[in-house]
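Data card: per-record layout.
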Amino acid sequence: MTDTLRVLLVDDQPIIRSGFAMMLSVEEDLVVVGEAANGREAIDLAEQERPDVIVMDVQMPVMDGIAATREIVERDLGRVIILTTFDADNYLFDALQAGASGFLLKNAEADQLVDALRAVGHGHALLAPEVTQRVIAQMSAPRAPSTGGEGRHADLLAHLTDRELDVLRLMGAGRSNSEIAADLVIGAATVKTHVSSIFAKLQVRDRVGAVIIAHEAGIVER
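The structure for this 222-residue chain is written out next.
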């Protein structure tokens, strides 16, 4: 990846796109390579511009952000940050399952936007604390009887050590690496090593994917 991160802004409200573009214009390592007003435009621009990060709204005409995210991730056209608001909880889990790398609140401050883009652009998942708890709550909500999530992931989970399972359970509960280290009375570097191993064994690219598997497998304490 180059030093400069290429960013695509997707929202059906021009004022939001222009506001974010203005925030980013002063950052030397971030460049906006395009703006789209719906999911279909986003896919076309992503194919053309190959951005590192796509900031994606959910509710848009023509094609919504969830469908666009799914296609973008499947085609490896860029990593996606979903734009969300506190009253859009019902979209969060769908966005995670579609392959989003994180969430950003629409009222985010400039420094939050910049930090989010840099984190995701350099390969990290981003779940802001305010959003994390809502994602976890939604995944933990009572649902219909299991359709075999635990069985579907059994082979992958079998490769984890007991300590890695402990770390995964805490990740699924929304704990940060430092909180996991404190809970398990181990060093932060050790937690980081376990997390990297979990990603490899579960065949996921980031924390988001691991959390989904933890919840679908039913190993997170309620």
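Known properties of this structure: The two ends are 40 Å apart (CA to CA). The mean pLDDT is 83.

See the next section for split statistics.
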